[in-house]
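Input.
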Amino acid sequence: MSDHKNDYRVKEIFWVKKIPNSAYWGIHTARAPDNFLLLLHSFVLKRAFFAVKWACAQANYDLGFLEPSLGPAIIKACEEGHDGKWDDSIVIPFFRVVLELP
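Output.
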């Protein structure tokens, strides 16, 4: 994925996160595994996510709400995501366990 020479660092109060320059995501996605105790890296949910995005993009393009140069690019990205190209860039929080103390 990354050769670490091209990583950049995001400094926060308590830690530093490395983000590959080649990543299509940023600090929020990098922090998601720390913020959510259980993450679902489900093949089925990721495919469904891109299927819904594809359907929305296709409908908006067909109705003329997306620019002619933008619509096909979004649709192509959704197709690539559905084929698994963006699996390492998608983090789906399944649920978050919250502990409340009295």
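Residues 37-102 form one domain.
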